[in-house]
Design a protein that fits this description.
Layout: H1 6-16, E1 28-32, H2 38-42, E2 51-55, H3 62-66, E3 72-79, H4 85-98, E4 102-111, H5 114-117, H6 123-143
Parallel strand pairs: 1-2, 2-3, 3-4
Length: 144
């Protein structure tokens, strides 16, 4: 990660998307099972994002959640050692405190990473992956 710090990766991405020129008025972003959750980190005041969606979050700090300044959605796995039920419930409480639109969808029969590396021969996993996609598209359709 030393060669790709958050500031370098995100600044470059936003620049290429026309943010600097003002051509784009709002931007949403998605994070899938990443060691560095740029969506949560940059959904803060002055961070460059307006709307966020995260599938199976990966080590999101409470401080980052409390700092968000835009609508935030999560697709969560039933079995997830990185985002277990107690952390999911803590996240709900933090998002309530923030007071912005939020959504957490929990998919039964799934494990962390289902939306990117799930076993599509498993009917529950395939359904969850498809619905997570629908959730993201619907979320951005509503909030962008």
């Amino acid at each position: 990660m030393a060669s790709h710090p958050p500031s370098a990766c995100c600044t470059r991405g936003f620049k290429h998307q026309g943010i600097a020129s003002g051509e784009i008025k709002k931007i949403g972003d998605i994070s899938f099972t990443s060691e560095l959750d740029y969506v949560t980190r940059f959904l803060k005041e002055g961070g460059g994002l307006d709307v966020g969606y995260v599938a199976h979050p990966y080590f999101v700090a409470a401080e980052e959640l409390l700092a968000i300044k835009g609508p935030y959605a999560i697709s969560a796995a039933q079995t997830d050692s990185v985002f277990p039920s107690n952390l999911r419930h803590d996240t709900e409480e933090l998002l309530i405190k923030v007071g912005l639109p939020w959504q957490i969808t929990l998919f039964s029969g799934t494990e962390h990473g289902f939306s990117v590396r799930g076993d599509l021969s498993n009917k529950a996993v395939r359904f969850a992956k498809e619905q997570a996609f629908v959730q993201a598209v619907t979320w951005f359709g509503e909030h962008l």
